[in-house]
Amino acid sequence: MTGNRSLTIQFGSLAILVGIIGSLLIAQEHKHLHGEGRQIGKVTPPRIFLDKSLRIVQYQLKRLDNQRLLLVERKTDDPKYAPVYTASSREQGCHDNTVMKPYRDWLK
Q1: Domain limits at 88?
Q2: Does the residue 37 lie in any domain?
Q3: Cα-atom radius of gyration of the chain, to the nearest Å?
Q4: What is the pLDDT of residues 14-34, one digit of tens each?
Q5: Phi-psi region of 25 (alpha: psi -120 to 50; beta: other; left: phi over 0)
Q6: Which is nearest to 71 in space by CA: 91, 43, 95, 96?
Q7: Are 58 and 89 within one domain?
Q8: Cα–Cα distance between 14 and 20 in angstroms, integer?
Q9: What global pTM score does this model have?
Q10: Which tens digits make up the pLDDT trace of 80-89?
Q11: 102 and 61 share one domain
């Protein structure tokens, strides 16, 4: 009986070892895309709902990175685009009292 028990323990240990090694090998086979699969340069202009409340528009603009923020549509003849100019001037490192020239001209 002790021979069977010893064999069972060895077989169980071997099964656990094979399971651990197998799972480690399988886990290493998946691929990570660390920039290889991304298409750099193809950034689509984001859709910002400028007809919503100011707080919602500011939230939408705050979530954009610099590259996408610069792609947001802007016009100097409509006041609804004012948050876009304010957000882009802050992202460029301007002070709150300094705004971009087209926006400053539009305010006059």
Answers
A1: 54-107
A2: no
A3: 29
A4: 888 888 887 777 766 566 666
A5: alpha
A6: 43
A7: yes
A8: 10
A9: 0.47
A10: 888 888 887 7
A11: yes
